[in-house]
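Could you please consider the sequence and fold following this short note?
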Amino acid sequence: MLATLPGRTQGLCLITEPLLADLRLDRVTYANLNLWATLLGALFCFPAGSAIDRFGLRWVTSALALLLGMTVWQLSALAGGVMVLFTLLLATRAFGQSALSVCSIATVGKWFPNRAGYAMGIYSVLLSVLFALAFGAVGYSVRVNGWRTAWVQIALALIFLITPLVVFVLREPKDREPRPDPERAQTGREGEAVDLTLSQALRTSAFWLFAGAAASFNLVSSGLGLLNEAVLRERGFDQHTFHLFLIVTTLLSLVGQLACGWLTRRCQYQTLTLVALALYAAGLAGIPLISTLGQLWCVAALVGVAGGMIIVIFFSVWSDLFGQRHLGRIQGAAQMLTVISSALGPVLFARCAAATGSYASLLFALAAVSFVLAMAAKTIRLPRLTV
């Protein structure tokens, strides 16, 4: 998942401002390019999920890591041209944010078929630490060496470190039947676990609630993430503070991840989703009101903790509720929705700033949406996992 950094909004936001200045592009044009690149790139989630279920994790993941590295290398050498930029953005989104993310989540889900939430909590904590280190290292490289050098360094890591690591270390999980979980599953006449197909999962309200909650979170985090520097500049903070904000929110998300990973063994997913989205709504509503560093770190705590909880929920809920036989396809569908929403986020933020001169009204509106979804989470019933 760390290898998806250059294809994710959180990675691209590190080079947004210097890239726009270098290529002489305005934010609205860039947001539109990012929108269509992300929307089209989301289509790669389906074939990635199907390929995992059919061919296995090892070779699908290694091929995608190599393709992403080659794409990042080409982007670092970009001299100009809107269509070339669009093509490279599309490839980074398709190979990184979409397909490689499906591989990463499916790996943990397939290796831990029972109570994936606890495993996903540990996975998320390690991921947050790595992303925090990456934000600091890449941000420093961008400031000192420029965005092109930073992207070359990432490309080299993808091609000569991540790809060989996957080839020689990743192993396919052994076929194993998930055991019925008396705390989660509803006992039926035989008490045996059932693996739902993609079509069956799509017919449940639980799929759409959890996918919708994750999609709404991604919409906000992508728009706020890609233009985070501009949003914080509006509140009077500089680029260095922006980089610190990324690191702090990522590290504080560890609290949410640890707590949520532990609580998935004791609380219903609906309750955890309600708490996470309510905290996130409070954090979003606070951003337009901050003016001091103390207030900024309070908002960072709310956003970070809530984000950590939502990440664990999104990573773990699919195998716990729908089984693992068709996990790649189900997670591919869910991932596609989050990628589409992440494409819409930057456009909404850019257009709001262009129309009103501020991001405040949109942040308040999105906080309200998160709160409404939080209330709706408690009304959803979990699907049956037993017959």
